[in-house]
Amino acid sequence: MAERQGQTVPDALLTRIGQVVMLHHGGDREEARRRLLDLWTELGEDGAPLHRCTLAHYLADTHDDPSDELAWDLRALTAAEEERHGSVEVRALYPSLHLNLAADYVKLGRAEAARTHVRRARTAAVALRDDSYGDGVRAAISRMERSLGEGEGEGGWEGRGGRRWEW
User: Fold this and answer.
1) What distance in Å separates the CA atoms of residue 96 and residue 83, rounded to the nearest whole number?
2) How confident is the model at residue 80, as a pLDDT?
3) What would you report as the CA-atom Rg of the chain, rounded to the nearest whole angstrom?
4) DSSP annotation string for 98-118
5) Residue 8 forms beta bridges with which residues?
6) What's the pTM value of the predicted model, to 2 decimals?
7) Which residues fall within 8 angstroms of residue 103, CB to CB, at 6 or more apart?
8) What is the pLDDT of residues 113-140, one digit of tens each?
9) How far apart are the first and last CA of the chain?
């Protein structure tokens, strides 16, 4: 969001992305994928890193093939890393980005890569606030850690086939 004379101004592209995500959550995965791809084309390779990160993250959710999900999640992480000043918004995305990559690698049978990303998610979680979003991400990280033998207790990660963590 941008600030104008002390007031927060909504980011039009993030609003449009959010509208398509609601369509996806409503069950129209194919249409959501099409619209997100249209936004990706509109944004282009030179678009703002936060926009590209957000779009790529949600595009990953619309794919059935774990390799396609991984490709889009890697694009999301790459875009986040391009944010030169590490804005608060981007730092808060890292735990979820790494968690989603861990889920991708689990689905692809690459447990060690999954462990690497769940560790990165845990490390990045220090940027999360103590609110419902932060609590939810930390809980999802814990579930993934347990399922990979990284934490204590029982497993429980559903992965994208069940319900993937979203920010």
Assistant:
1) 16
2) 93
3) 16
4) HHHHHHHHHHTT-HHHHHHHH
5) 3
6) 0.82
7) 114, 144, 157, 159, 160, 164, 165
8) 999 999 999 999 999 999 999 999 999 9
9) 16
